[in-house]
Amino acid sequence: MSDWKDIRNWSREEMMKRVARFKDLKGSDGGLPDSPLPECRRKLYAVIGFQPPMTDNAATTSPVGADASAMPAIAIAEGFNLGYCKAKPGKGPLMHNHDTNETFIPITGKWRCEWNEGRAMQHVDLNPLDVISLPVGVARRFMNVTTTSRAESTS
Length: 155
Known about the structure:
Layout: H1 12-16, E1 27-28, E2 43-48, H2 65-69, E3 82-86, E4 102-104, E5 111-115, E6 122-126, E7 132-134, E8 140-144
């Protein structure tokens, strides 16, 4: 691997492999343990990275699940992942954790991000383009809590 100080020139063809057009993203509504549950219905879009975990442990999953991680728009393995989650109000994934950081950015509506479990549970409500970054091993959950007519744009 070359040093970051070594400036590299990339052709347009090479760089276009690293461009993801939102309109062209392919989502998946399966591939995670809670995917079949009605209250957890959502669509996940792997944008950058998200290769499936390199383990046979069934408890270790990609943040976007096996289905979406098999089709990222920009397939790289550089230690960074980005994806989108789309869910109707009242829906979102169950409490879970990862062996990676998880950064969450709502695009539309209002989303509640909860972390910890039991008496230690905390939450923050996020508006479009707000960001939360959850560290490795912290239990987390995200749920669409939009209550206005904007809910239509998040379904």
